[in-house]
Amino acid sequence: MNRRSFIAGATAFLVNSTMLGPSYAQNSANNRPRLRMPPLLDATQTGRVDLTAQFGSTAFFEGASTRTIGYNQGYLGPAIRMKSGALGARLTNALDVPVTAHWHGLLVPGEHDGGPHSAVQPGESWSADMQVEQPPSTAFYHTHVHGRTASDVYAGLAGVIHLSDDRDEERGLPSVYGVDDLSLVLQDRRFDTRDRMAYDLSMMDVMHGFAGNVMVVNGQINAVAAVPKGVTRLRLVNGSNARIYTLFLSDNRPMHLVATDGGYLERPIALEKLLLSPGERAELLVDFGDGRSVALKSDGDPNQGPMGMMGRMRGAMNRVIDRSFTVLDFAVDESLPVGIDVLPDMLDGAMPDLGDTDTLTRHVSLDMGMGGMMGPGMMGRPGSGMMGPGGTGDTMMGTMGVFGINGRPFDMGRIDFEVGLGTTERWVVESPMLAHPFHIHGAMFQVVREDSRTPRPEHTGWKDTVLVTGQSELLVRFDRPASANIPFMFHCHILEHEDRGMMGQFTVT
Ligand code: C2O
Ligand code: CU
Ligand code: CU
């Protein structure tokens, strides 16, 4: 029998899944694999990162191999540790499809950013000699070839970056890699009845984004993370194609948020729940000093579930449709050294404060071409990008899957905005239907309002990606250049939406 940490609400075709009761995790904890960290690629001394995109074969379930891809290994890539300063990166493509290495969260010029204009053909390589100059943070890297980002990230082309300044000990933050400083790449994947990872898109998968039925953390299923009997730092990366997590701990102990996408906060914020959408990162401190085991859990994805799209409509916006599920189990291992046993009360991060700057306002509407799906009340929003009147099944199939921004699907040959280098702009981002994680390359921003309210606590630090559930107002600081040849992207980080056109590009000069 298979052992699965399955995700509720997405398991219809998995007949075995109901065999796993809630006590399953405890009963079998002893036979479960220990969570592994990605291998560490330490570039802090060498200033060099060499990646090869390569084929692999991964048995997520014993005896059932799936063809996967990864950077320097069969699935996912190493954890890259780097510091500010000169960094020489090189990507070699040993696959038979084009790839890139996009540094999601690094503030580097467009030509080094690894976006769709920097696609590396099979057998070729790409180099970026970068100057990295930004505060410590947890970033993300992944392939970004237009039209195939979703399938290739799904198959494994993604990894985590630690930008470090070697001062975490002074900050009182856990920093021993794999002991009290854990990197967790959260992904949901879909496994077929033969336990192989599958990526078959239905119409619903394209609309809502592809959701899996099994949790995969660092490329492993059903693993248990061993932690010392003290304070542990969790660097969370949502590396899922589409799933939005609402994370909490099974005994409701607080999670102390210390960093968001752009780095440290001023002081930790105790959270009961953490919203983490695709592309976002968060660093949490969790105190395991009582020695008890605890599970990191998530509520259902607000974009998924039996009610589907309708669940997102007015009045039902925050309704959680499917049940909660376990993301990862933690067990205290008393043989591990305890580095930190007191939570720090101050950090040295700077909170964004762009409020007084002179700004230009831009409107960004994340559009789904699905006029045919919607009732009359949802139609007729000017500029919402509906493609045709729809109404029949055929038209529905024809119009779904054409997504855009401000009514236009992405075009590699069109520059959507020209932004002034060194300026701050106010971007008003609208998600008329689903919740969309909105990401901007080459810039960090402050969330000033969301749905006419002050932002949720986890959105108060510097961000490069944020979930927009209705309307969010962002103040964006642009201080890295990008030319029309290799512009920066802005897009929905639900990868199925991005690939189908919910993306735009801009220059910064
Ligand atoms: Cu994480 Cu444009 O991407
Ligand atoms: Cu990015
Ligand atoms: Cu989207």
Question: How would you describe what is shown here?
Answer:
It is built from six helices and 31 strands. It has helices spanning 24-27, 149-155, 168-171, 203-208, 393-399, 495-499; strands spanning 40-42, 48-61, 64-71, 79-82, 85-93, 102-104, 125-132, 137-142, 158-163, 181-191, 197-198, 214-217, 224-227, 231-238, 245-249, 255-260, 263-271, 274-276, 281-287, 294-299, 325-332, 359-368, 403-405, 417-419, 423-430, 436-440, 444-450, 465-468, 471-478, 488-492, 503-508. The strands form six sheets. Strands 10, 11, 12, 14, 16, 17 and 19 form a seven-stranded mixed beta sheet that branches. A five-stranded mixed beta sheet has the order 1-4-9-8-6, with no helix packed on it. Strands 13-21-20-15-18 form a five-stranded mixed beta sheet, with no helix packed on it. It is globular. Residues 366, 436, 492, 494, 497, 502 line the site of one copper (II) ion. One copper (II) ion binds next to loops.
Fold blueprint:
Blueprint: H1 24-27, E1 40-42, E2 48-61, E3 64-71, E4 79-82, E5 85-93, E6 102-104, E7 125-132, E8 137-142, H2 149-155, E9 158-163, H3 168-171, E10 181-191, E11 197-198, H4 203-208, E12 214-217, E13 224-227, E14 231-238, E15 245-249, E16 255-260, E17 263-271, E18 274-276, E19 281-287, E20 294-299, E21 325-332, E22 359-368, H5 393-399, E23 403-405, E24 417-419, E25 423-430, E26 436-440, E27 444-450, E28 465-468, E29 471-478, E30 488-492, H6 495-499, E31 503-508
Parallel strand pairs: 1-4, 2-5, 4-9, 10-14, 13-21, 22-25, 24-31
Antiparallel strand pairs: 2-3, 5-7, 6-8, 8-9, 10-11, 10-12, 14-19, 15-18, 15-20, 16-17, 16-19, 20-21, 22-23, 25-29, 26-28, 26-30, 27-29, 30-31
This protein binds CU-O-CU linkage and copper (II) ion (2 copies).
One copper (II) ion (CU) binds next to strand 6.
